[in-house]
Specification:
single chain; alpha+beta; four-stranded antiparallel beta sheet; 9 helices; 56% helix; DNA-binding; ArsR-like_HTH
Length: 209
């Protein structure tokens, strides 16, 4: 079996576990029409990649059986349309309470993020705070690239925006991100490019103190 077939079979296993819930090796073997040994080989790869886990389940007759199920990491592989719900709720809030309430919502989110991350900035130099901010944004899916200029300033590029659909419609989300950066870093930050405005990335220029 070649590599493409292996990948395809593992995708089928993930889909089976998503639609049918926890399954045993025997269940999967019958469904796929391949040997239990072949199924176990695929399961080993999926376990290594932290996409599945197993639990020992007692049977009415016979020995306990390992049942395999998807992890939270695997669930993220399946399509999500959260931004549609978010946009619908923001539009309803805007219609009922006006633009000010929508902006207040973004401001409260910004304040919550600052409270969450400011401890990681405490007592650190600007260089360390900038690196910590890059790590935070990377962990949140922003695909950050950090550069230091000859003058000692920084350029922080974000090549992905996890809230792009929201930011495209509500620019206050971008304003709050800029404000959050300035608050966490304690220095002047300027945004020169923005994904929500059609640029290829979000670029922030961070001034040394």
């Amino acid at each position: 079996m070649n590599q493409e077939q292996d990948v395809s079979t593992r995708k089928v296993i993930l889909n089976m576990l998503k639609t049918r819930g926890a399954l045993s090796v025997n269940d999967m073997s019958k469904q796929l029409g391949i040997t239990e040994m072949a199924v176990r080989r695929h399961l080993n790869t999926l376990e290594r990649d932290s996409l599945i886990d197993s639990k020992l389940v007692r049977q009415a007759m016979g020995r306990p059986t390992h049942m395999y199920f998807l992890t939270v990491a695997a669930d993220e592989l399946f399509p999500k349309k959260y931004h549609h719900l978010t946009l619908d709720l923001l539009e309803e809030l805007q219609a009922v309470a006006g633009d000010d309430k929508v902006e207040l919502l973004f401001e409260r989110r910004k304040d919550k993020l600052i409270s969450r991350y400011e401890e990681r900035m405490a007592g650190k130099s600007l260089d360390e705070r900038v690196q910590a901010l890059a790590d935070i944004q990377n962990a949140n899916g922003y695909m950050v690239e950090l550069e230091k200029t000859d003058a000692g300033n920084y350029v922080l590029n974000e090549y992905n925006c996890p809230i792009a659909q929201v930011a495209n419609q509500y620019n206050h989300a971008c304003n709050c991100e800029l404000s959050m950066f300035q608050s966490l870093l304690g220095t002047e930050v300027e945004r020169t490019e923005c994904l929500a405005k059609g640029d290829s990335k979000c670029t922030y220029r961070i001034q040394k103190q």
